[in-house]
Amino acid sequence: MSVRVPRPQPGCDLRSLPLTPAEAFLLSRIDGTLNERDLAAITGMPSSAVEESLQRLHELGAIHLEGAVIGRTSASPAGPAHRPTPSPSSAAVPPPAPPPAAPGGVSAAATHRAPAAPVINPADLAEQVDLSPEKRLRILDLHQRLELLTHYELLGVPEAADKKQIKAAYYALAPEFHPDTYFRKQLGSYKQKIETLFNRITVAHDVLTTKAKRAEYDEYLVQSRANQQMATMMDASRDVARIASAVDASAEAAVVSPAPAAAHPAAPARPAAAPGQPPPKPSSPSMPAITTKERRELLARKLGGALRRPSSMTMQAVKPPAAGASVPLDRPSEPGPSPESARAAEVLKDRYDHARSEAARLQIERYVALGRGALEREDFASAANAYRIAASLAPDDEALQRACAEVQRLAAAALAEGYLKQAQYEENHERWEDASLSYVKVCAGRPDDPAPHERAAFTLLKAGSNTRRAVEFARRAVELSPEAPEMRLTLARAYAIVGLGKSASGELARAAELAKADARLRELVAQTREQIRQGKPI
Question: Which stretches does UniProt call biased (Low complexity) (predicted)?
């Protein structure tokens, strides 16, 4: 990969550029100091994607690329090219794993979600309805993917589409799912699915053709994608495993690779024997040279641990008894390692430990530097990713572990702010399932804030997906703010839904006591009490 250093282009109007979300995200990380490898590390994007995005940003005039390009050479005469061999301790470490791929059929630039392909239930296809098999499959497939598609994707238009294009797409798609199209047809369970699809298509049209609503929706898309990108970057588990493996491989390469010939001076030639005389004996015994194969064998035996198996040279000397031959009862024990092999194993172990320590040190320094740079830019997700990788390589470094924990806290708080904006939009548009998931993520970054806990409980109740968990969030909200009547009203609703009537009545009584001085809150308590009495607490 190249090591060019991209720099922002002064005076460029970024809002006017047709950037994909991936390009916009990468552009936000360019500060004139990070090279391409660093950008791949802190964004989690594949190296090839970073290179392609930088090239496009350069062509659009958003950035300027400086520095030499390594790995791209001009045409040269035919012949073997010289390639420098990197030292084992500085072996390249793969960049962090790329973010998940986009769903099938949807542009990767449009979304970072990666759901599994829709699974069609054969019973749905076999249902007796007045629809062709192709139409059934079309309805089932689109209905299952509906919550994963943006308004633009649903209508099949680019995000830069103008109002005329959006209307044309709507009028081409809407008739296919308009309920009147299926008048007097037996639809069975497909009837509700068709109505849901048509309503969503209509909402997409109305939002995208209204200037203010479209601007709000576009901001929501940017925020939700940024949240997803941050969450992906903060999960460094894959990167930690990859880099740890690379460090191990670097150390093993330093042990297994034979040393250069120049490093070992040649032994002095023995004097030739005089005619008729036996050859002279060596003055002292010398250690036999260890071949590459034997180095690997020694390394495989856990670098100096108990050598449980004889070496390959010993195995050649051990012959099985001939067929029918008697075997003595007192068999001699297997020969242990020779002193030469034991000393060689100890040397290899020391060499491996040193090489691994050096490789780990280099990577720790690299990722701590990346983390500090990200903190200066207030890019907390990238900082958290870098510090977590560095801390994984030095588990006994207490100072580094404390720094990593603090950066993780900052990143969680920053991510919570983004998820709060996302949750509020989803709640305002009655997307209860999505809103509840977003509020739960806010709570993870704000464990002592009662407001998101109350909203998480409320939206979970509205979604009807996990009422028991809604009770837990409502209880936590009351613990954090016991004097707030709104918190107790939500807890009362949750208790009523799970069948804890007495507990619900108790919370209503406490809320009424706290709301004595506020007419609005007293009215809200009365409404909640009546809703619970009618069996409609939410």
Answer: 103-112, 262-275
Give me the pLDDT at residue 269, please: 45
Write out pLDDT tens, residues 343-352.
Answer: 777 877 888 8
CA dihedral (525, 529, 530, 533) in degrees, to 10, reads: 170
The C-alpha angle with vertex 138 and arms to 136 and 142, in degrees rounded to 5, equals 120
Instruction: With beta carbons less than 8 A apart as the criterion, state whether 166 and 219 touch.
Output: no
Q: Which domains does the chain have, with CATH numbers?
A: 5-70 (1.10.10), 122-209 (1.10.287.110), 215-257+293-303+338-422 (no CATH), 430-533 (1.25.40.10)
Of the candidates 364, 362, 428, the one whose C-alpha atom is nearest the C-alpha of residue 88 is: 362
Q: For tokens 């073997």, name the residue.
A: 80
**Residue 29 and residue 42 in contact, taking contact as beta carbons nearer than 8 Å:** yes
**Residue 358 phi, psi dihedral angles, 5° rounding:** -70, -40
C-alpha span between 50 and 153 (Å, rounded): 24
User: pTM for this structure?
Assistant: 0.57
Which pLDDT score, from 0 to 100, does residue 91 have?
38
Residue 106's contacts (CB-CB under 8 Å, 6 or more residues apart) are 148, 149, 153
Q: Which residues contact 133 (CB under 8 A, 6 or more apart)?
A: 125
Write the CB contacts of 490 (distance below 8 Å, at least 6 apart in sequence): 454, 457, 458, 461, 474, 477
Q: Which pLDDT score is estimated for 37?
A: 77
Instruction: Please give the pLDDT value at position 77.
Output: 37
Closest CA to 507 of 466, 474, 536: 474
Q: What is the DSSP letter of 184?
A: T
Residue with tokens 């207490």: 398
Ranges in the chain, pLDDT < 50: 1-2, 67-116, 258-290, 302-319, 327
DSSP secondary structure letter of residue 288: P
Q: Spell 323-346 as b/e; 16+ CB within 10 A means b.
A: eeeeeeeeeeeeeebbeebeebbe
Instruction: Please list, in sequence order, all residues whose beta carbon lies within 8 angstroms of the beta carbon of residue 260, skipping any fewer than 6 positions away.
Output: none
Phi, psi of 21 (to 5 degrees): -55, -40
